[in-house]
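Got a spare moment? Tell me how you read both lines of this record:
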Amino acid sequence: MPDDHRSRGADDGIVLVTLVVDSPLPWSVDELIRQYRDRIGVEDALARLQDVGLVHRLGEFVWPTRTARVADKLFTTTP
């Protein structure tokens, strides 16, 4: 995962979509790292997502906040 600002946003989005859409809840951080093969990128994305209130983290487990799940439904539901 490259480290420029534009790429970080995409990485955050990819990790968030994984947590929201590809559930079982919760995910272990190690599962995400194995999936993306980038420990630093995943850890950084999770920290940014947690900072803005889109993921909860408890030890080695992460899951999307209710806000993230509701937003996903709003943006993916067709009228």
